[in-house]
Every structure is written in structure tokens, then in C-alpha cells.
Design a protein that fits this description.
Number of domains: 2
Order of helices and strands: EEEHEEEHEEEHHEHEHEHEHEHEHEHE
Structural class: alpha/beta
Largest sheet: 7 strands, mixed
Helix content: 10-25%
Number of strands: 17
CATH architecture of the largest domain: Alpha-Beta Complex
Radius of gyration: 20 Å
CATH superfamily of the largest domain: Medium-chain alcohol dehydrogenases, catalytic domain
Length: 350
């Protein structure tokens, strides 16, 4: 099926219109007419080949919300007309220990298949993402959306930014009685503040910008700390159960490990272009502290996150763009000039 899309043809050329072919819905497939697609920093890294392995043409986009337009004969969980979502994965081996535990993002049977730039038998040999009019996905990787239809554009970023923050917050027990820090108030960080607040934790937002303090409070932070202010940082020494670091730029982690309680954890979800400086070991050893990482979430947990956010009325703060504004949006993302996530209205592809 011929589908209009927007693609990068090389690392150095602007994205532009392209016709792509989508497979017909097989017995276990769901065909989705895409309504909105969020714009993730990973899209930019991949389209501009800043990470190794980009295959061209590259159609990014893994924060997808749309309407089911066809289902395979063996699909029982979804019906034509339903509003659904697709996140960062469209397949995995389905038989390794991680997949068996609903942790497909950690698939060891060859790794999960990304919504774009992943291996597929479909032409052109790699997956093509949500900067397109429609997509066909295995029913195992399709998610139900329970939000009101008026909020669907702002739901799209939950499929990546939402689950990337929800999963570690849940895994490390953020909730009532826990003091939780969120480092960085951007696409990921603003979702982290909202979700940690809704989970009942005492939330402290860390920013390097005084101008973001009021915004962080409005997002749900109980306190805001300027991480460049040594006195403000020292006032919180040894007091955090958990800190979620969303910053995707290389920086010194030691000021944040100093804020952890004994047995506290600093978890990284931002992936910098260059490695962080090696952390000091003594503070970790003498406090049994941990530095950890976390990657999106499995399908079951992503559905749990969507249901939680629908119940709590949580969506992303977004700026809607036309498809042909994507390169400008990428440039603005690099400058931090968005509050807090761009979302493409895919009707503009027509």
C-alpha cells in the first residue's frame, strides 16, 4: 500500500516527502491511520546519523497515535475505529527470558525491532516510522489509548517520553514517603516531574536555569534546585531515595550522587553524545549507592503507564507543528527552544 511519508535521504539533507510501501495487514497485524506523531531527540540523532547505523531513506517517529483502519483475521484485541498507540518497538524475539517477563525492550534474542531503522523483511529492509500517514504493526505491539480524543496530540509523547520516565520511577519505588529528584526539565524531564508527582513522591526538580523554576513548580515539583548553585545543592546532601537524570549532555554525576541517601540510586535515561566523566567511587562505596540506567518499558508496562496517565489526566506539554516544519523543529530542539515536546499533525502530510 503506497503511503505518504517524510524521510531523510542522507545525514546532511533536509527531510522531505517520499512515497513508501506498507504491507497489507497480515493475520496478526493492525493497520493504523496515524493522527499525530511526537518528535523525539532520537529522531534527530538517527536522521542526522549521529548514532552509528542509520539506514536511508530514514522515516523517523516512534510516538504514534492513530485510528485502527484494518485488522488481521486473528486479531481480537483491537477493532476498526479504535484509537491506539505505537511506541519505540514493533517486534522482539518473543521467546528470550526478557520477552517472557514482558520486558521486550531488553530482548536478548537479537534485540527489539525499533519502530524505525530496525530490521524487517518489508521493503526497503528496515522499518519506517511514524512520520507517515499509516503504519502496520503486530497486534502484540499496539497499545490502547484511554484519553479523551481532544487530548490525543498531547498523548503521543507518552509513547516514549512518558514510558521512559514512568518505568524507572516505578522500578525504583517512587511513591508516598519517597524523595525523588528529576534532573533536567525538557521533553523527558517534564514528564518525569508530572508522573513522580502523580505517584505521590516528594518531587525536587533540578535545572541550570533560574527561568525554569516557576515552570517546574507548575508541572508538579514540590521544590526546585539550581544545580549550579552549590549552597542549594548542599542543602539536599544525603537526602534522596532516587534521582532520575534525563539530561542528554555529558556532565559530572558526582554532585548528584552526593545527594543520595545510603542505598539511593541515580538512574540515567538521557544518552549523551560523549560519555559522562568517570564518577568518583568513594561516595558510592561508602553509601552503597548506585548509578543505573533504564530503557523505555515493556509493552505491558507501557499500557499500564497509559492507563495511569489517562486516570490522572496526565499528558505532555506540546507544540503542534506541520510536517514540513520538522527541520526547523530539530534545530529548535538543539537549542532547547520547545516546551516541551513537538508533535506533528500528520494531516499536513496530505
Amino acid at each position: 500500500m503506497t503511503t505518504k511519508a517524510f524521510a531523510a535521504q542522507s545525514a546532511t539533507t533536509p527531510l522531505g516527502p517520499i512515497d513508501i510501501e506498507r504491507r497489507a495487514a497480515g493475520p496478526h497485524d493492525v493497520q493504523i491511520d496515524i493522527l499525530f506523531c511526537g518528535v523525539c531527540h532520537s529522531d534527530l540523532h538517527t536522521a542526522r546519523s549521529e548514532w552509528d547505523g542509520t539506514q536511508f531513506p530514514c522515516v523517523p517517529g516512534h510516538e504514534i497515535v492513530g485510528r485502527v483502519s484494518a485488522v488481521g483475521d486473528h486479531v481480537a484485541a483491537f477493532a476498526v475505529g479504535e484509537i491506539v498507540g505505537v511506541g519505540c518497538m514493533v517486534d522482539s524475539c518473543q521467546h528470550c527470558p526478557s520477552c517472557g517477563e514482558g520486558l521486550e525492550q531488553y530482548c536478548t534474542g537479537g534485540g527489539f525491532v525499533g519502530t524505525y531503522n530496525g530490521p524487517t523483511p518489508d521493503a526497503p529492509g528496515h522499518t519506517l516510522g511514524g512520520y507517515s500517514q499509516r503504519i502496520v504493526v503486530s497486534d502484540k505491539f499496539v497499545l490502547k489509548i484511554g484519553h479523551d480524543e481532544k487530548d490525543l496530540a498531547a498523548v503521543a509523547p507518552l509513547l516514549c517520553a512518558g514510558i521512559t520516565t514512568y518505568s524507572p520511577l516505578k522500578h525504583w519505588g517512587a511513591g508516598p514517603g519517597k524523595k525523588v529528584g528529576i534532573v533536567g526539565i525538557g521533553g523527558l524531564g517534564h514528564m518525569g516531574v508530572k508522573i513522580a508527582h502523580a505517584l505521590g513522591a516528594h518531587v525536587v526538580a533540578f535545572t541550570t536555569s533560574e527561568s525554569k523554576k516557576q515552570a517546574a513548580l507548575e508541572l508538579g515539583a514540590d521544590e526546585v534546585v539550581n544545580s549550579r548553585n552549590e549552597d542549594e545543592m548542599a542543602a539536599h546532601a544525603g537526602s534522596f531515595d532516587f534521582i532520575l537524570n534525563t539530561v542528554a549532555a555529558s556532565h559530572n554525576l558526582d554532585p548528584f550522587t552526593a545527594l543520595l541517601k545510603r542505598d539511593g540510586t541515580l538512574t540515567l535515561v538521557g544518552v549523551p553524545e560523549h560519555p559522562h566523566p568517570s564518577p568518583a567511587v568513594f561516595p558510592l562505596v561508602f553509601g552503597r549507592k548506585a548509578i543505573a540506567g533504564s530503557l523505555i518499558g515493556g509493552i505491558a508496562e507501557t499500557q499500564e503507564m497509559l492507563d495511569f496517565c489517562a486516570e490522572k489526566g496526565i499528558v505532555a506539554d506540546i507544540e503542534m507543528i506541520r510536517m514540513d516544519e520538522i527541520d526547523t523543529a530539530y534545530d529548535r530542539m538543539l537549542k532547547g527552544d520547545v516546551k516541551y515536546r513537538f508533535v506533528i499533525d500528520t494531516a499536513t502530510l496530505g
